[in-house]
Automatic annotation (TrEMBL):
It catalyses: Thiol-dependent hydrolysis of ester, thioester, amide, peptide and isopeptide bonds formed by the C-terminal Gly of ubiquitin (a 76-residue protein attached to proteins as an intracellular targeting signal). GO terms for molecular function: cysteine-type deubiquitinase activity; zinc ion binding. GO terms for cellular component: cytosol; nucleus. Belongs to the peptidase C19 family. GO terms for biological process: protein deubiquitination; proteolysis. Residues 763-772 have a biased composition (Low complexity). This is Ubiquitin carboxyl-terminal hydrolase. Residues 324-846 form the USP domain. It is an enzyme of class 3 (hydrolase). Residues 646-687, 713-753 form the UBA domain. Keywords: Hydrolase, Metal-binding, Protease, Repeat, Thiol protease, Ubl conjugation pathway, Zinc, Zinc-finger.
Length: 848
């Protein structure tokens, strides 16, 4: 064997010192979930700074010829016993007092202590060089290698920069109203105790308005507890913005809420504002739980949380292949739950896990940025069982105690970073909607499987919509691709209305002991709402050339291998505030949808003629040059593509302020004929699920929406960005034209029109094949599988919390006739799977 000094000198030119901007992967293998704590440690390439576990480092060496690797191993330090530990040998966990993660008083995030050993390893002979060995080598070798080692050690790892180390939910901003808050000289003085709501006499959750001293109850919580909204109603009537929660006032501060800013805020003049009403802040003591403490309680256990997580029972931990937990990277439970379910689907297993060796062999030079590699890595990590082992007990040095529910599991950092890159929501560490992530991931699979097998076909199905004009009895048939069936929740179909009304009456009367009653909704009622004809009262019929009434019926044109059903629990209240419906639905284990099979055009049935509706006409504006008014079907020379419709700007603005996309608002006002906010709002609510909901308004007879951008003015940078995603220049041009040259919207548009884009074959001349050949037959429809409509339930994802933007997700999956709960790193046999409280349900087709 050659002298180690000579070997190191021979590879010196390949050893780099990390520079600012270099991605150093020193915590996780690029091809597996091995880490420095794993057996064999982690090898960091000293040229590319990619990390590899012991099972993949030889493969990287053979493929690249790279020989110098920085080897990191970590072993857990034994924890010292705390003076205050309990009789079981474990120190008692402190109760969280702060809505935060990773800081004093917040939710506990155990930080293990490790001893670290580092050295340089030269492949293929695995020659090892320690820091002490470097001291005896030539200066040029010692300096270069020492700088590289130090640079790798001090560089922030990629996973560190992506992971939330701390989060503080109590960081509040100074209210803009605090500095010059108006306070009325009305002689009101507030006693130091004994507060009651001035309207309903409630004695809990009491707030004082800092402008007029009015004492009123707070908001009602999603579970029916809390107040009766009287403080909020007072703000809506008076506009007085700030209120303080009585009972939280101490010399250190208090809970102050700004109704105008809709958030907890700071009031730097709080002592002055309180003294105006006779309250001496320095002598007050806390008697009520702060809003933070209430939120902490909700985040620990409330109603559905306890039921869905099966907190009331001792669950048996499970380990082995297909039973691997996933670490929560900070609000990543939505991703964990969805991916656990997807990798129980055979299509995803065969596409990514069965072919993992081939995928790794064909991976690019930086596999951390390759979609197929990272999905395969995740799938293998979940199914192999290699990481499905009990997490070591920090207080058990010898490993003699019983296995806990927590697992070593896997931390999907690279996967999360890759699938969220460039997305305004999934690139953050905020909580997200599991249904939206499922569709986002399916879009990515579609984009990356444009050749070869496509596992998302397991969920793809065709929907047939039949519209019948009630005046002419002529019909129109359309088909669209979908991946999820969305079931409405009909609260008026609840079977326990008497109990609900009684509980509501007791809450309104201020009865704090009123029970929380959950609405019981029959699943059959939800399915009936989906299948029953919908009445369209403002339908423009091309047969009668006027608006009339029509019926729309939705049916399955094909049945997928796997069916996803979403329960639409999230809706808007009368005040347009998003809310979650607290309902229990008796979702069945088996499902037969055969009766919902589409039939297509019936014998003797006439179709509506393909004629566009007339343009929007306003009383004071004469619209000229529009086909169907002064033009005709044969001669559209008078049509002006630059003419924009006349829209009620105030209605558009009101809709935008509610958070809806601008183009959707413009379409709502256009298609309801400027008839007001109510009609436009109804249009939005009935079209929110349309794939082109946010697409630009396209006028009748026009091929593009207003603001269409000519090719010459398209941003070359935007074109290059979309082309780099694997699309042609023609496809990128079409997307940018359709979205007024806005990159983010163009990317969203292109993913929602993949089937249309598949037909855009690009010729060598740079134009589409249709242009260069003068037209061709329309492309065949999207490929869908079909079979009988009989299904069995095999998984469901549940959500806990008041909205999709907060709370927690878990999933239950049926494995070998046993229901298993996957709650991040905890994987246990389920005793009472709460099938009635799910959000997403996954069915698979059953054979006769």
């Amino acid at each position: 064997m050659a002298d180690v000094g000579e070997v190191l000198m021979s590879v010196l030119s390949t050893i780099r010192v990390p520079k600012p901007g270099d991605r150093v992967h020193k915590d996780e293998c690029a091809l597996s979930f091995s880490s420095p704590e794993s057996e064999g440690g982690l090898y960091v390439c000293m040229n590319s700074f990619l990390g590899f576990g012991s099972q993949y480092v030889d493969r990287h060496h053979a493929r690249t010829g790279q020989r110098a690797y920085f080897h990191i191993t970590r072993t857990r330090k034994a924890k010292k016993e705390d003076d205050n530990n309990s009789g079981s040998g474990h120190p008692p966990k402190k109760k969280p007092t702060r809505l935060a993660i990773g800081i004093e008083g917040g939710f506990d995030v155990e930080q293990e202590q490790y001893e670290e050993d580092v050295k340089v390893v030269i492949l293929p002979d695995r020659q090892e060089i320690t820091s002490d060995d470097l001291a005896t080598m030539p200066d040029v070798v010692k300096e270069r290698v020492s700088l590289s080692m130090a640079g790798i050690m001090t560089a922030d790892s990629v996973s560190h920069t992506l992971q939330v180390q701390q989060w503080d939910g109590e960081v509040r901003q100074e209210s803009r109203h605090a500095a010059d808050l108006k306070q009325l000289d009305n002689g009101v003085k507030i006693p130091p105790s004994g507060w009651r709501c001035d309207v309903c006499d409630l004695q809990e959750n009491i707030w004082m308005n800092l402008t007029d001293g009015k004492v009123l109850c707070g908001r009602r919580y999603f579970d029916g507890s809390g107040g009766n909204n009287h403080a909020l109603l007072h703000f809506q009537q008076t506009g007085y913005p700030l209120a303080v929660k009585l009972g939280t006032i101490t010399p250190d501060g208090a809970d102050v809420y700004s109704y105008d800013e809709d958030d907890m805020v700071l009031d730097s003049k709080l002592p002055e504002h309180l003294s105006h009403f006779g309250i001496n802040m320095m002598t007050m003591e806390k008697t009520e739980r702060t809003m933070t403490e209430l939120e902490i309680a909700v985040n620990q256990r409330v109603g559905e949380w306890e039921v869905i997580q099966e907190s009331g029972t001792t669950l048996r931990p499970m380990f082995g292949p297909g039973l691997t937990g996933m670490k929560n990277l900070g609000n990543s439970c939505y991703l964990n739950s969805v991916m656990q379910v997807l990798f129980t689907v055979p299509d995803f297993q065969s596409k990514y896990v069965s072919n993992i060796d081939k995928i790794i062999d064909e991976a690019p030079s930086d596999p951390t940025q390759d979609f197929k590699t990272q999905v395969a890595k995740l799938g293998y990590g979940l199914l192999s069982g290699e990481y499905s082992k009990p997490a070591p007990d920090p207080g058990d040095e010898n490993g003699a105690s019983e296995p806990r529910g927590d697992q070593i599991g896997i931390a999907p950092r690279m996967f999360k970073a890759l699938v969220g890159r460039g997305h305004t929501e999934f690139s953050t560490n905020r909580q997200q909607d599991a249904q939206e992530f499922l569709l986002h991931f399916i879009n990515m699979v579609e984009r990356n499987c444009r050749s070869g097998s496509n596992p998302s076909e397991a969920f793809r199905f065709l929907v047939e919509e039949k519209i019948v004009c009630q005046q002419s009895q002529k019909a129109k048939y359309t088909q669209r691709v979908d991946y999820i069936v969305q079931l409405p929740v009909l609260m008026d179909q609840a079977t326990n209305t008497e109990e609900l009304h009684e509980a509501e009456r007791r809450r309104e009367e201020g009865d704090s002991s009123a029970p929380t009653v959950r609405a019981q909704i029959p699943f059959t009622a939800c399915m009936a709402a989906l299948s029953e004809p919908e009445i369209l009262t403002d339908f423009w019929s091309s047969a009668v050339q006027a608006k009339t009434t029509a019926t729309k019926t939705t049916r399955f044109a094909s049945f997928p291998d796997h069916l996803v059903i979403q329960i639409k629990k999230f809706t808007f209240g009368l005040d347009w505030v998003p809310k979650k419906l607290d309902v229990s639905i008796d979702v069945p284990d088996t499902l037969d949808l055969s009766a919902l099979r589409a039939t297509g055009q019936q014998p003797g049935e006439e179709l509506l003629p393909e004629v566009a509706p007339p343009p929007l006409m306003t009383p004071d504006v004469e619209v000229k040059g529009i086909l169907g008014f002064h033009g005709n079907e044969e001669d559209d020379s008078l049509y002006s593509p630059l003419l924009s419709p006349v829209l009620d700007d105030s209605t558009v603005s009101q809709l935008c302020e509610m958070g809806f996309p601008l183009e959707a608002c413009r379409k709502a006002v256009y298609y309801t004929g400027n008839t007001g906010i109510d009609a436009a709002m109804n249009w939005i609510m009935s079209h929110m699920d349309d794939p082109d909901f946010s697409a630009p308004l396209v006028l009748p007879g026009c091929s593009s929406g207003p603001g269409t951008t000519p090719t010459e003015s398209l941003s070359e940078e935007h074109l290059a960005t979309i082309v780099s995603m694997g699309f042609s220049r023609d496809q990128a041009t079409k997307a940018l034209r359709a979205t007024s040259n806005v990159l983010d919207r163009a990317v969203d548009w292109i993913f929602s029109h993949l089937d249309d884009l598949e037909s855009m074959d690009v010729s060598e001349g740079g134009r589409s094949a249709a242009e260069s050949e003068g037209g061709r037959d329309p492309p065949p429809g999207p490929r869908v599988r079909d079979g009988q409509g009989k299904y069995e339930l095999f998984a469901f994802v549940s959500h806990m919390g008041t909205s999709t933007m907060c709370g927690h997700y878990v999933c239950h999956i049926k494995k070998d006739q046993q229901w298993v709960i996957f709650n991040d790193q905890k994987v246990c046999a389920s005793e009472k799977p709460p099938k009635d409280l799910g959000y997403l349900y996954f069915y698979r087709r059953v054979a006769d």
